């Protein structure tokens, strides 16, 4: 049995699922004033390419979610997973997941996107999940993560915390950005933007 690790946004999907969820389910007035506060960061992220993605995500979570009631967004996440995400998923990505499942492999989505909609989507697909989890207290979001944003080296650490790689005959990893490099380094069989990475570097861990 092998272990198959999949990034989600722009690997399984053809777009950023988090941005689409935020735009669809946050209050319009919060998006308006929050957007103004985020202008400097957005300029650094989208135009100048000097603000890391994880910094941008943390700012969006802080401004967009702080103080919001949790249960309505949990329900929104379930609907989003059921009704919206299927239209974002790349058919060949889902085929690859099914191929691994048919072989009896352990399939894991490892993503910086959030648990609100990834957990129900992964449950629907019968795959495991490691992702960014939103903090909450007394039924409201804190605007911070519970733990850390699941990207970069933290992805690899969370994988190694949950799975012993030596228990698997081989490890496969699929990613699309620099945030996936540490995860890809754990695998013998690596795919970057759906192109095989051919090198002789042994997997880490």
TrEMBL record:
It comes from the Bacteria. The keyword Transmembrane helix does not apply. The keyword Acyltransferase does not apply. One of its GO terms (molecular function) is magnesium ion binding. Keywords: Hydrolase. SUPFAM superfamilies: HAD-like. InterPro entries: HAD-like_SerB (IPR050582), HAD-like_sf (IPR036412), HAD_hydro_SerB1 (IPR006385), HAD_sf (IPR023214). Pfam families: HAD. NCBIfam families: HAD-SF-IB (TIGR01488), HAD-SF-IB-hyp1 (TIGR01490). This is HAD-IB family hydrolase. It comes from Marilutibacter maris.
């Amino acid at each position: 049995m092998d272990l198959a690790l999949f990034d989600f946004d722009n690997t399984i999907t053809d777009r950023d699922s988090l941005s689409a969820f935020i735009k669809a389910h946050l209050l319009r007035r919060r998006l308006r004033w929050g957007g103004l506060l985020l202008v400097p960061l957005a300029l650094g992220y989208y135009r100048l390419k000097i603000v890391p993605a994880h910094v941008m995500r943390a700012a969006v979570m802080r401004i967009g979610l702080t103080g919001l009631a949790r249960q309505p967004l949990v329900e929104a996440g379930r609907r989003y997973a059921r009704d919206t995400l299927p239209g974002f998923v790349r058919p060949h990505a889902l085929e690859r997941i099914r191929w691994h499942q048919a072989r009896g492999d352990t399939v894991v989505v490892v993503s910086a996107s959030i648990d609100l909609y990834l957990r129900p989507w992964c449950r629907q697909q019968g795959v495991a999940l490691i992702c960014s989890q939103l903090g909450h207290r007394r039924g409201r979001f804190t605007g911070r993560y519970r733990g850390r944003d699941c990207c970069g080296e933290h992805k690899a650490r969370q994988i190694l915390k949950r799975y012993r790689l030596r228990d698997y005959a081989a490890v496969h990893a699929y990613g699309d950005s620099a945030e996936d490099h540490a995860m890809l380094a754990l695998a013998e069989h690596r795919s970057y933007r759906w192109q095989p990475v051919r090198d002789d570097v042994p997997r880490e861990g």
